Each structure stands twice: as C-alpha cells, then as structure tokens.
C-alpha cells in the first residue's frame, strides 16, 4: 500500500499540473520573455534618445525634415534628375 502511495505521489510530482516538467516549461518561458523585454527596453531607450534629440536639437530636426520631407532652405536650389525612359539606374 505504501509503495502504491509513493508511486501516486511521484507521478503527481513529475507529471501533475504543478509538477517538475511544468516548472521547467514555465522557467523557459520566463527566460524567453525576459530576453524579449530586454530587447524592447533597448529599443525604447533608443526611441527616447531620438525624441529628446528632436526636441532639443534643431540640427536633428532639420536633418530629418531634409531627408524624409524634402525640406529646402531659402536661397537653396533643388535639382531633380529624372532618367530617360530607356535608361535604367544601376541596382545592387
């Protein structure tokens, strides 16, 4: 009878809802989530630094306006080169 009780308790310990295998699975999941959180934290820090730079630095704001919005200062001349229909631009 004691041997049967020992087997039942061992089975619950290893294979039960809160058993060792479940614990190992949860530990692995926690590790994966911590790694993911670390990556997201690094991304957030970079975004916060970029926001701070854009709020404080006029040069960064101007550079972004030039590259993304085509901003042109007074007194500058903008030249746009359009290739002929038959000419193909080299691609990498």
Automatic annotation (TrEMBL):
GO cellular component terms, semicolon-separated: cell division site; cell septum; plasma membrane
Keyword Ribosomal protein attached: no
Record carries keyword Membrane: yes
GO aspect biological process, one term: FtsZ-dependent cytokinesis
Primary residence: membrane
Quaternary structure and partners: Part of a complex composed of FtsB, FtsL and FtsQ.
Name this polypeptide is given: Cell division protein FtsB
Highest classification ranks of the organism: Bacteria, Pseudomonadati, Pseudomonadota, Gammaproteobacteria, Arenicellales
């Amino acid at each position: 009878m004691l041997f049967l009780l020992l087997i039942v308790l061992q089975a619950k310990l290893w294979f039960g809802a809160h058993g060792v295998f479940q614990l190992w699975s949860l530990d692995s999941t926690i590790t994966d989530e911590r790694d993911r959180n670390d990556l997201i934290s690094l991304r957030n820090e970079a975004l916060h630094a970029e926001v701070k730079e854009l709020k404080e630095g006029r040069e960064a704001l101007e550079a972004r306006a030039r590259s993304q919005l085509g901003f042109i200062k007074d007194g500058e001349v903008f030249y746009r080169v359009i290739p002929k229909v038959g000419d193909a631009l080299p691609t990498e």
